[in-house]
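Page 42, continued from yesterday. The earlier attempt failed because a stray header line got pasted into the input along with the sequence. Redoing it now with the clean sequence only.
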Amino acid sequence: MLSSIVLASGCSSEQSQNKQLVNDPDSPALKLKAAKQTEYPLVLKDACREEVTIPSEPQRVAVDNDELKDFMKVIGASDKIVEVTEDSASSLWGARETILAKSKPDFFIYPAPSVLVYPGSEMCMNIQSFRTMGFPIWVTGHSEIARIASDMLTVGIILNRRELAEQASDKLGKVIAQVKEARKGMPVKKIYWELGYNRSFSKNNQVSSVGVGKNTLEDDLLSTAGGENILPWLDNQSPDSFPTTLEQLRKADPDLILYQNYFRSPEYVPPEEREEWQSLRAIRTSQLYVYPFDEMRYSGLPDNLMALLKAIHPEAYSRITVNN
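This time it went through. Structure tokens are written below.
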């Protein structure tokens, strides 16, 4: 799912650079949209700012994981997939390379969704050896929803599936604009997004709450919907398994807690029943919201963003539903 993230190390200046790339007026999507049809060869820069040459329409596309299969379906290009490289037998780089050499794709989309990608990041460094394999590689950077909308159109045009790709991109872009406009002028609310429980064997089997960190797609969705993620960004800390201490929660004192109401382990206790959380503002004011999606897939992003707006600013959500 989209929250299965490997965070690339970086610093605040690198994060700012990534933001600038997302809002780049020279983005491939804006340039390609102006054209009437896809003309090859295409020469474009991916999320690593590497120049990628696509000599002709790709017919055999490899993708890195099942999430990117969903991305291909959304843009109307799933029939072009010949390989998915990431599974239990191919988690190592050498295995991926062997699979790619065997399947002989003419285009490869990488890496996992939601990863923070910028020139010099871990993901950009990892893929360098693959660029010599004889086929174009398109590195995505999907830790921001606006970037995803842009990439839907760009990849769709690269694969000569312009119509459906443009529809998907426009649909997601419209929802982003609606949400931002509806919550304009409303206060930013502090949010804790719990992803589940985690057992620490190094701490006497202690079970702690695990939240979503910065520089993730979830973090950007919160920001778009008018929320502020209370968790920090830490170098080399995986944001999809960010152990959250009681001290952190009490200090941040979130206005709202998002959580999954899935009883997947005997240790699980719903937030409102946790004795140590009773002093938190969100618990005292009953500001708890069970987010209605388990896996955050590309096909569900418009609905997921609306669900978060409804949780954070229900009055803003009502504006949209009334206007529609």
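Notes: The first strand starts at residue 42 and ends at 45.
Reminder to self: strip header lines before submitting.
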